[in-house]
């Protein structure tokens, strides 16, 4: 049976945290537990998109973060900017940096995961590794801090498949703590999915210069967050 949206969806309260705003581009910090776009059910209408458009009616969607993932999200302020940014994501130009706390401590200091992914159709929205029928997916990772039974990783996805980081780290044997789909046994150990989009760098739609946005995770102890995406 496909997984159903949670019946207890409760969008987090609080003002929209704006990181940057100009005539072409808007960057905000999404809290965990908030959908990026409305769900099919009326009860899932409150989302980051609706909050953004309540203040900036002209804002247009560029990309999405999972409901339980927090961090930097970018919107276009014009149709031309949306086309420009959409093409960048299609060509994998943006540089993305995520921070995650994972179960266990990896033996190596860093690594590269190259495992194709596809939907696990009988169990949607789950995704799964499939070397035969999956679509190419690559993720770089590096340990930035170690604890007794967990570690903090810096993640650099080359591609942007659905649930990519969550599935890749599960495949690695170090699932993200607090993941209700891929590591439900860790839910009691952390209050949320410990995955945060810490930084995003891309080319500005007006002029093409690189611009970077950052949002501290709030859950990495005594570790410098990435200065560059």
From TrEMBL:
* Coiled coil (residue ranges): none
Single GO molecular function: RNA binding
Which GO terms fall under biological process for this protein?
enzyme-directed rRNA pseudouridine synthesis; tRNA processing
Protein keywords: Isomerase, tRNA processing
Please list the residue ranges annotated as the Pseudouridine synthase RsuA/RluA-like domain: 25-170
Against CDD domains, the record matches this protein to: PseudoU_synth_RluA_like
* Key word Ligase present: no
Superkingdom of the organism of origin: Bacteria
The entry assigns this protein to a family as follows:
Belongs to the pseudouridine synthase RluA family.
Provide the protein name. Answer: RNA pseudouridine synthase
């Amino acid at each position: 049976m496909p997984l159903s949206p949670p019946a207890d969806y409760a969008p987090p309260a609080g003002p929209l945290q704006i990181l940057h705003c100009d005539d072409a581009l808007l960057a905000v910090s999404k809290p965990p537990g908030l959908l990026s776009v409305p769900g099919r059910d009326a009860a899932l209408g409150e989302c980051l998109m609706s909050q953004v458009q309540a203040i900036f009616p002209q804002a247009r969607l560029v990309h999405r973060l999972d409901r339980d993932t927090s961090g930097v999200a970018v919107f276009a302020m014009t149709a031309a900017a949306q086309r420009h940014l959409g093409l960048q994501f299609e060509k994998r130009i943006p540089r993305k940096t995520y921070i995650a706390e994972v179960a266990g401590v990896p033996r190596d200091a860093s690594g590269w995961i190259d495992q194709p992914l596809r939907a696990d159709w009988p169990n949607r929205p789950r995704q799964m590794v499939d070397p035969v029928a999956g679509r190419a997916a690559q993720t770089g990772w590096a340990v930035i801090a170690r604890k007794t039974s967990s570690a903090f990783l810096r993640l650099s996805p080359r591609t942007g498949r659905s649930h990519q980081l969550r599935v890749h780290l599960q495949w690695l044997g170090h699932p993200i703590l607090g993941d209700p789909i891929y590591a439900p046994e860790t839910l009691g150990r952390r209050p949320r999915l410990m995955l945060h989009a810490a930084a995003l760098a891309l080319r500005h739609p007006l002029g093409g210069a690189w611009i970077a946005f950052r949002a501290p995770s709030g859950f990495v102890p005594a570790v410098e967050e990435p200065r560059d995406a």
